[in-house]
Amino acid sequence: MKQLILASQSPRRSEILKNAGYQFVSFPVHVSEIPDKNLNLDEQIIDIARRKAEAAKAKALVEGLEGIILSADTMVCFGSEALGKPETNQIAYDYLKKLSGKKHQVKTAIYLIDLDSGDVASHIETTDVHFKNITDEEIWSYIATKEPADKAGAYAIQGIGGKFVEKFEGDFNNVVGLPLQALQKLFKLRAWNF
Length: 194
What we know:
Elements: E1 4-6, H1 11-19, E2 24-26, H2 41-63, E3 68-78, E4 81-83, H3 89-99, E5 103-114, E6 120-131, H4 136-144, E7 165-169, H5 172-176, H6 180-190
Parallel strand pairs: 1-2, 1-3
Antiparallel strand pairs: 3-4, 3-5, 5-6, 6-7
């Protein structure tokens, strides 16, 4: 039985794993999450998840940990534009105004490294999310809750921001930050048991 090492400080990712019955070690690392603009959006997301996993691997080896490192990165994509975590309330407003009444995609890359064998696995999951038309007043009221501040695309589907979602197609947990179904398929494919 392997030990799962979550290279993330996201409480949402921890909660998804806990709710699915996984035992894991939280092992947050700090790396640049600035995307490499020379890469396409899918490559950018995988690259950031890889950076997190590689940083966790280096730290884990120094500390003598064994097991499987799991990292993830989530991006909200509107056309060819990535909507990251808004740095200001105005940026949050701009993001939500763009998404109003339209469809966008939420992409999460997962990256796994087996510390024992060096085996690597990765996957990108995409979920289509359709927003209702939202008014300026609704947007500013939502921003006042402070929920959008640390969320890609300036909303949390599992929180107050869920009221803006008309429908979604795909894995709900992917939008929250960890595509559980895809992750479980990778675990099974690699015969990694936790």
